[in-house]
Amino acid sequence: MSPLDRKLARDLWNARGQGLSISLVVACGVTLLVMMSGLVSSLDATRAAYYDRYRLADVFAPVKRAPRALLDELEALPGVTTAVGRVSGGALIDLPEQSAPIRAQAVSLPDFGRAALNEIHLTRGRRPNAARPQEIVLLAGFAAAHAISPGAELAATMQGVQQQFVVVGLAEAPEFLTTLAPGEMAPDDARFAVLWLSETALEAAFDMEGAFNEALLKLDPGIATAAVIDGADRILERSGSLGAYGLEDHLSDRFVTEEIKGLRASTNIVPPVFVAVAAFLLYIVMARMIQNEREQIGLLKSFGYSDLEVGWHYTKFVLVIASVGTLLGCGFGFLAGRAMANLYQQYFKFPFLVFQIPPAVLGIGLCSSLLAAAAGGLLVVRRVFALSPAVAMRPPAPPSYTKSGRWLKSLLKAFDQPSRMVLRQLLRQPGRTALAITGIAVGMALSVAMLAIMTSFQESIDQSFTMMDRSDMSVVFVEPRDLTVVHELRRLRGVLEAEPVRAVPVIFRNGTLSYRGSINGYRAEPALQRALDEDLDPIFIRGEGLLLSKPLAARLEVSAGDTVQVDVREGRRPTLELPVLAVTKSLVGAPAYYEIGALNRALKEDRRTSAVYLTIDTQESDQLYEAIKNMPTVAGVTLKQDARESLERMMNEGAGGVRYVMAFIAGLITFGIVYNSARIAFAERSRDLSSLRVFGFTSGETAYVLLGELIVLSLLALPLGMLLGHYFAIAVAEGFSTDLYQIPAEVPVTAHAGATLAVLLATFCSAALVKRDLDRLDFVQALKSRD
Q: If we measure between CA atoms, which residue out of 613, 634, 642, 612 comes closest to residue 94?
């Protein structure tokens, strides 16, 4: 080893405490980057492999009723490799322990052999026997939620007729990664089921002998779906096509895609913020540590070492610390990413997991931390390198305080001697003080942002289910009904208020931009389901045009006064040109609102409703549920409390669950910044502190001189941390928001209070640790050192 390398080893050992703490801060930023990038890559790869292995269709074409002969025409479309017809329809499950009926979807399976498309993955039991029409395979997630095993009996209503079935198997399927019923905001295994029956049995139940009501198409790789969708709609139009759509618009895939999209957006925004904070801390710490090496640098240059050799020596010092942090971060990120991926595997019901972390991510983590460390080190030492050896070996000239001495002297008269020493140290080195304050403030800002996001998730749910949705339950119909059904429901025992809504599936278009969603037709002044503006005030719903939610308007790049094209995907399927009247607030989904009467007139279907919102007397709920179960036109019932619990579960177990990891890492970084500030101050002033003890200062007074500076820095950093936290919260909220839910970028007082408490707690713990080292300080050895 060369002399410089031996010196490097000694310096690293002597600064092992500070170096390790800096490495851990760097590791926190890299951990988050590797974890989230690996999670996104793994979910994407697992989804693709699952879809491919079980041959998930690329195009879905629902239809009223079509003869199987049309499948040959569909398969003849350019780019189509396989066309399969199946029967699918809604059902209601009646469980003894559940008062309200549970929505379900019944899907046919081939009588013999495996399905050519959309195959199922059996987890227990066997497939249904075509000779026994009462046998079904049940969705495994629903079965687990209700403790149903093969051999159990299940009552389900299809087409208004209740039947008894026997569960012979449990299965998962790539088209049901999320059990999200149409119109629901969040998946819930307990409130939505899938029943697979033999083709013969389901054809008989839905009167579809020799016909199908959904076509599945598999395409050649690289084929654009738009042309195939147009062709399928043309072939199926005479059979009552309901509008074909691609996999990207399938309810389950769309949910998974948005979840991955949200994670990817968070990965692009959140980890860089954490890495930048870690790099900034590294710069602050190294600036102070290397500045203390001024005399050693001059001594090395006097011995003939060039500026380049000395610069590379100190750069290696920084790089070793950063490398340790990067390697730790990569290891922790791999373990955390694997753990989060396993949680997502259970959440999305993947039968297997393809876990991978792209090598590029590891390279980015390594390069970003090392480059930041090297740049910070060079910025610090470049001024020292410009000095001649003789000048560098001398202590720096003391700053002149002649201009400020008079007012400083007056200011310090009110304090005792130890307090004056603390204030002098802060005021006479304003640059160093400002850097320390900024470092602590940045760490606090991370905590403010993460606490704000934690609160915003809950606030988003509270606003959605208290201010927007003020109903108790909703009843959804199989097909749009006449508005007289509202009066029929209002007359039921236990119903206090009933309000209609017409939900129409559409495709919004603005030039080349499009979005598949729905228009919600509300009363002009709805009471139970309302649209709100940015101030959370109700909006009057007019019949002259649309009210678009903020995420939908952003997706289409439109604002109030613009016009959008609306392709209706049910009934007569007209194409409408509608003006945008206003942009509204939305916390869940990307809805559009239209006055219900104007919507029905535009569809030439006057006085129709597809669902009714109800407020009910909970004392009469059981009788009400029983009455609704016996209504053959009801497709499903949703209780608001169940929907709220599902959304909370989704936000805690899905991408929202990542915020807990981020909050933990933000807390570690905050503590690391404060602790490093205390450790560096102790390392810099150990000789001065020993002198104070020799001069007769007590242990407490000496600690006060050292730790008083840390306390003042932390207190001064609080206002700046609150300000920076506001902007950090906006960036992080943007990263978490998706088309499924939007996180308001608001920072409540509790976030500031929590972050303040975290900084003060970190200050107290750091002070206690440094005070312990101060009590163990060897005065003689410290006084012998020159630096």
A: 634
b/e code 390-419 from CB counts within 10 Å (16+ = b)? eebbeeeeeeeeeeeeeeeeeebeeeeebe
Q: How far is CA 649 from CA 174, 333, 349, 655, 663, in A?
A: 21, 25, 15, 11, 18
Cα distance between residue 346 and residue 141, in whole Å: 10
Residue 80, burial from CB neighbour count under 10 angstroms (0-12, 13-18, 19+)? buried
Residue 278 has, within 13 A of its CA and on its CB side, a CA count of 36
Q: Are 529 and 593 in contact (CB under 8 A)?
A: no
Q: How far apart are CA 121 and CA 651, in angstroms?
A: 27
Nearest CA among 238, 252, 197 for reference residue 87: 197
Predicted local distance difference test score (pLDDT) of residue 318? 78
pLDDT at 281: 66
Residue 155, SS3 per DSSP: strand
Report how far apart, in Å, the C-alpha atoms of 463 and of each of 189, 328, 738, 743, 750 are: 24, 41, 17, 11, 18
pLDDT at residue number 697: 77
Q: Give the integer Cα–Cα distance in Å for 462 and 466.
A: 6
pLDDT tens, residue by residue, 551-594 = 888 889 998 889 999 988 777 788 899 999 888 877 666 788 99
Q: Which of these, 210, 197, 170, 199, lies nearest to 110 by C-alpha position?
A: 199
CA distances 337 to 24, 355, 608, 652, Å, are 18, 9, 49, 17
* Alpha-carbon distances, residue 598 vs 483, 486, 502, 595 (angstroms): 14, 18, 11, 5
Joined tokens for residue 59:
């195009």
Rounded Cα gap, residues 559 and 464, in angstroms: 23
pLDDT at 49 (0 to 100):
94
pLDDT of residue 386: 64
Q: Which pLDDT belongs to residue 540?
A: 85
User: What pLDDT score was predicted for residue 274?
Assistant: 66
In sequence order, which residues have a C-beta less than 8 Å from that of residue 332 and are 6 or more positions away? Answer: 27, 31, 34, 35
513 Cβ neighbours under 8 A, 6+ residues apart: 555, 556, 557
Q: Which residues of the chain have pLDDT under 50?
A: 404, 787
Q: What is the pTM of this model?
A: 0.72
The confidence score (pLDDT) of residue 365 equals 74
Taking only the tens place, the pLDDT of each residue in 479-499 is: 888 888 888 888 888 889 999
Residue-level pLDDT at 219:
94
Give DSSP secondary structure letters for 37-69: HHHHHHHHHHHHHHHHHTT--SEEEEEEEEETT
Report whether 538 contacts 532 (CB < 8 A). Answer: yes
Q: Cα separation of 409 and 401, whole Å? A: 10
